[in-house]
């Protein structure tokens, strides 16, 4: 048995937390030989609920779960952690404007970035899930100057999984026959699910689909609006699928993606002509705990327009929180 890994989950008393924690503790994230210690952070008013979750975790008798820390203090939550999944965020309430939501969450992620900077392991891997995820990741990274920017990422994997499932269903193929599908940009309706380089059952996806109007008029808008469709159907936002995507993202980062392309939102390095200073969803492969961008993909005029739209939106989000980035 290996030494335990410490994994922090924020917003742990929320609905994504509830779908995530039991899977981490059962070994779905780091495998059947890796013991874990969970550090659960939530607001003071949620500590009672967190205690209930700890009781349930105990009652599962998970062999890999060595300890559960519950706290409302980010410094306790992030001390010596190996991995952080930052889910906790303020939801948009009635009448709240987008800029107010950005500001409220910016403060949360600035505080958590400072705490990570102070007490997390220097090779910590941080995944931001709480929305607006890309910009929250930028804020946390900026507040943590002693940690390498490569410690930070934001989640666009749910969008990738949604796009992959939709393409597979359209072509009547099992989902695992779809590879090299990319989601670019922001985790928002401006995202660009892109199957121009994908293969489905060994065939180029654009050939297999054979209908560019389906791509532009059905596929892209349906993937972009999937979160809203789930809310309308379920009365609640996506939780199990979001938790599953967080596990997929982290597992690939830590354990490797075995050559598969996966999409992650990372600090832009200027590649593909995307401005630096924002977190942007790009295709990557992971091995040995490192992330390597997939380079050299062709960006045609349609793709360029989509990338530009996402970049513009992310620059606007950044402008709204600029005061927290110094
Ligand atoms: P939820 O409202 O059920 O849970 C959020 C939890 O965060 C609550 O327990 C709340 O007390 C806690 N929280 C709020 N502020 C906190 C703080 N400062 N520190 C620690 N905990 C705090 O929400 P749910 O459904 O679990 O979603 C969480 C976030 O994930 C939302 O921002 C949602 O928009 C986002 N999300 C992101 C997705 C993505 O693909 N990136 C997909 C789905 C959801």
UniProtKB/TrEMBL annotation:
Belongs to the LDH/MDH superfamily. MDH type 2 family. Signal peptide: none annotated. NAD(+) binds at residues 11-17, 42, 105, 112, 129-131. Residues 6-144 form the Lactate/malate dehydrogenase N-terminal domain. InterPro entries: L-lactate/malate_DH (IPR001557), Lactate/malate_DH_C (IPR022383), Lactate/malate_DH_N (IPR001236), Lactate_DH/Glyco_Ohase_4_C (IPR015955), Malate_DH_type2 (IPR010945), NAD(P)-bd_dom_sf (IPR036291). Gene3D superfamilies: Lactate dehydrogenase/glycoside hydrolase, family 4, C-terminal, NAD(P)-binding Rossmann-like Domain. The keyword Electron transport does not apply. Catalyzes the reversible oxidation of malate to oxaloacetate. Residues 157-322 form the Lactate/malate dehydrogenase C-terminal domain. The active site is at 187 (proton acceptor). Substrate binds at residues 92, 98, 131, 162. One of its GO terms (biological process) is tricarboxylic acid cycle. This is Malate dehydrogenase. Coiled coil: none annotated. One of its GO terms (molecular function) is L-malate dehydrogenase (NAD+) activity. It comes from Janthinobacterium psychrotolerans. Keywords: NAD, Oxidoreductase, Tricarboxylic acid cycle. It comes from the Bacteria. It catalyses: (S)-malate + NAD(+) = oxaloacetate + NADH + H(+). Its EC number is 1.1.1.37.
